[in-house]
Design a protein that fits this description.
Radius of gyration: 18 Å
CATH class of the largest domain: Alpha Beta
Order of helices and strands: EHEHEHEHEHEHHHE
Family: Belongs to the short-chain dehydrogenases/reductases (SDR) family.
Pfam family, one: adh_short_C2
InterPro entries: NAD(P)-bd_dom_sf, Sc_DH/Rdtase_CS, SDR_fam
Largest sheet: 7 strands, parallel
Distance between the termini: 32 Å
Strand order of the largest sheet: 3-2-1-4-5-6-7
Number of domains: 2
Keywords: Oxidoreductase
Protein name: SDR family oxidoreductase
Strand content: 5-15%
Number of strands: 7
CATH topology of the largest domain: Rossmann fold
Amino acid sequence: MRFAGKVAVVTGSGREGGLGEAIARRLSEEGAKVVISDIGASRDASTPDAMIGSTDEMKRIADAMPSEATTFACDVRNPAQVEALADHAIDTFGSLDIWVNNAGIGYIMKPLVDVSVDDWRAVIDVNLNGAWFGLQAAAKRMIAAGKGGRIINVASQAAKSGFPHAQAYSSSKHALVGLVRSASIELGPEGITVNNVCPNHVTTGLGKWQNEHFAEVQGISVEEYLKRMAARIPMGRPGLPQDTASAIAFLCSDEAIYITGESMNVSGGEEPH
């Protein structure tokens, strides 16, 4: 029970079978009280119902957590809502010790010449600005509490390598590398570590959509697409949600107290740098 007495916020954790749910569950299994957060309902064209965690889904996930859990609907593009999310954690459970920026848009994928300004802004706004708002909100409260803390961004293999149809996505994830390098220098003296985890492909609900999209782009079946993907991964398979959840649990633990400013690959050897 490494996280007994700790309170964790996980953004983008409101989809059943999603990466955020797996992260929240792993922290909860080890004793953390968790705040399940997602946007709750579609707000605009860039947040369709099929790609977000609904209020009802968030509640089902929270009810199934092994430790105490609560829910809070938050659009990470809105700094006031992110601040309110941080306050909710403290008001409900008494502290804020772990913050995981998991919310992201990975479903706006188009050829470069077809990407609109709105497409670009939507991805950057969630993946980069949302992570920045979360990092800042968490840091302010952790500094005030004087107990240190853990802040982790779910970046991606796309933080290290470029991919077709993912210009905004790759740019937003590359930017997170610079963000943690800078933030870790400022927050280190406060006992707060700031890191990224960089998973390769994980077949969640979003991952399934990506499989279908890129198989269609390449003119091959989903089965063939997955076969080719597995062939280029030294460990022979795509990532699982628990692979990333385990890495995050380690970075949140006391064993990782001297690790900060890093972007840890969780890719089965596919991303070696």
